[in-house]
Each structure stands twice: as structure tokens, then as C-alpha cells.
């Protein structure tokens, strides 16, 4: 039987985001210079939730930008039928020069998405610092990238995959660990970065 382990339920996700919000405030001595940047798709919703928590804690609005990493990935998977990268756009509601940009994503794995997100941010301006917040860190880094804020550290094997479901997309908050899907011929786990219809990806 395939392994299917619940890692975080709705309450655990809520607690993790609240803790991350407090850590962001402590690390940056407030949020006056903080801009959140959600990595499409689920990172955007997580960033918006963090902004709500920060408003409750600090009493001020924190801008939320959207980062699309497609153009900056060195192992592009998501392509149009023409073979061109699928671009949805990177956008910030305020200038990021001199700001602390906190990248927000659901799962940190190889580090390639985080690296690409940093490049996307730098292409839009020169922030004072870039920090990284993730809901789940599953290890197996291929690049020297370390998150500043983590909701949950989860030891995994490369034959497993972390699935993140959020109420805004999937109708519920749930994080599970499952065996990676295999190719039709059964030879091995599904290629990294292949699209998921109902759950968050991971890189």
C-alpha cells in the first residue's frame, strides 16, 4: 500500500503561519520595510495570509507581490504548446528598492524554485535583503539555499512527494506526504516539476 501520511491539518497550517509572522516581525524589528512576495501559485495565497497575520500583530498593511519564476528556471517544465515558457508575470504593488523582500512558497525541495524566485525579484529592483519563508522544508537541496522561516521540517526520501492543499485552491488546508507518482511504465517517480491538478508543487 502506498504511503500517505498527514503532516499538517488546518490548525497546524494556521499555527505555522502565525509563528512565521511573529518571526518575520522579530527578525526585521517590525514590518515597516517588509514586502511579501508569493511564488505562484500557492505561495501567493500563503503570502496573503501572512500579510493578514502581520496586520493583526503590527497594525499596518504589508504589501504583497507575486513572483512568477518560469523564465528563470534552469529546468523548465511548464511550457506552452509552442515550447515557449508559460509566463504569468511578476508584479509588486510598491517599489522594492531598499526593502526587505520575503519570498513565500509552499514547499522547499531542491532550491531551484527559490533561486529562480530570487532572480525574478532582483530583475525588478535592488532590495536591501531577500529572505525566504516556506510552509514545508523537505530537504534534498541541490543548491546552497537555506530558508529563514520554516513552518515544518519534514525528513523525506526522494521517492516521496509533499502535497500542499490550500482552501483558496483546493477547498481545504492539508499537507500530506505520499509516494511519488510513477510513470505509466512503472519505471520510477514522476519527473520533478510535472504539473499537479489538485495539489501544490515543490522544487
From TrEMBL:
What is this protein's name? Bifunctional protein PyrR
GO BP terms: DNA-templated transcription termination
Q: What protein family is recorded? A: Belongs to the purine/pyrimidine phosphoribosyltransferase family. PyrR subfamily.
GN (gene name): pyrR
Q: Which intervals of the chain are annotated as region Disordered?
A: 179-203
Annotated SUPFAM superfamilies: PRTase-like
Which InterPro entries does the entry link to? PRTase-like, PRTase_dom, PyrR, PyrR_bifunctional
| Function field | Regulates transcriptional attenuation of the pyrimidine nucleotide (pyr) operon by binding in a uridine-dependent manner to specific sites on pyr mRNA. This disrupts an antiterminator hairpin in the RNA and favors formation of a downstream transcription terminator, leading to a reduced expression of downstream genes. Also displays a weak uracil phosphoribosyltransferase activity which is not physiologically significant.
Keyword Transcription regulation carried by entry: yes
Amino acid at each position: 500500500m502506498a504511503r500517505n501520511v498527514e503532516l499538517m491539518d488546518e490548525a497546524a497550517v494556521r499555527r505555522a503561519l502565525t509563528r512565521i509572522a511573529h518571526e518575520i516581525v522579530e527578525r526585521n524589528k517590525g514590518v515597516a520595510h517588509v514586502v511579501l512576495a508569493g511564488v505562484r501559485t500557492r505561495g501567493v495565497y500563503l503570502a496573503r495570509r501572512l500579510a493578514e497575520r502581520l496586520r493583526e500583530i503590527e497594525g499596518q498593511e504589508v504589501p504583497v507581490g507575486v513572483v512568477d519564476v518560469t523564465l528563470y528556471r534552469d529546468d523548465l517544465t511548464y511550457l506552452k504548446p509552442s515550447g515557449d515558457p508559460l509566463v504569468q508575470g511578476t508584479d509588486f504593488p510598491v517599489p522594492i528598492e531598499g526593502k526587505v523582500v520575503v519570498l513565500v512558497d509552499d514547499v522547499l525541495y531542491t532550491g531551484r524554485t527559490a533561486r529562480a524566485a530570487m532572480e525574478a525579484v532582483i530583475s525588478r529592483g535592488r532590495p536591501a535583503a531577500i529572505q525566504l519563508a516556506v510552509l514545508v522544508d523537505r530537504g534534498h537541496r541541490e543548491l546552497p539555499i537555506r530558508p529563514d522561516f520554516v513552518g515544518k521540517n519534514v525528513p523525506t526520501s526522494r521517492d516521496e512527494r509533499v502535497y500542499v492543499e490550500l482552501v483558496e485552491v483546493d477547498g481545504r488546508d492539508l499537507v500530506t506526504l505520499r509516494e511519488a507518482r510513477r510513470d505509466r511504465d512503472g519505471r520510477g517517480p514522476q519527473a520533478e516539476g510535472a504539473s499537479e491538478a489538485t495539489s501544490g508543487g515543490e522544487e
